[in-house]
Amino acid sequence: MQTDISPAKVKAAWAVALVVDAVQVGLGVTTGGLSTWVDAPLDIVTMLVLWRLVGWHWVFLPSFALEFLPYVEFAPTWTMAVLVATRGAQGVTPFSTGAPPEGPGPTSGEKPPPKVVEAVVLPPVDGDQNR
Questions:
Q1: Is residue 42 part of a domain?
Q2: Cα–Cα dist 80/97, whole Å
Q3: How far is CA 88 from CA 3, 115, 122, in A?
Q4: Which end of the chain has the smaller Cβ count within 10 Å, N or C?
Q5: Residue-number span of the structural domain to which 63 is assigned
Q6: What's the pLDDT at 82?
Q7: Per the structure, how many domains does the chain have?
Q8: Is 48 within the bounds of a domain?
Q9: Per-residue pLDDT of the chain (131 residues; tens, 9 = 90+)
Q10: Does residue 37 sit within a domain?
Q11: Does residue 107 form part of some domain?
């Protein structure tokens, strides 16, 4: 797995995987049992495109093989493959905006200030005493 994948390539891989999985579910509904053979060229192209975008990852092999099994092809295997293949790529997550977190953070070498917690102890109410 490559860890130096640009955020643009990660987003493109996510877009390809989501679109292909959605198209395959749609084709499965409209073509029935023929969807396995109609989807085969799409799966080959998808694997090559994802390989080009994010580099080789072992998870592409099971995803590719599962797409040829009837009814299993409806599972979002390409989306799951991209999730596994891109986790940890330059800290990019599928739902991140790429913007740094807001608010002041500790600078290097400084410890954050301790948090103060206040508590109030109430006396027991009549009848709730455990004696």
A1: yes
A2: 20
A3: 7, 31, 49
A4: C
A5: 7-86
A6: 92
A7: 1
A8: yes
A9: 555 788 889 999 999 999 998 988 887 777 766 766 777 888 889 989 999 998 888 888 888 888 777 777 778 888 999 998 888 765 555 455 555 555 555 555 677 778 888 888 878 777 655 55
A10: yes
A11: no
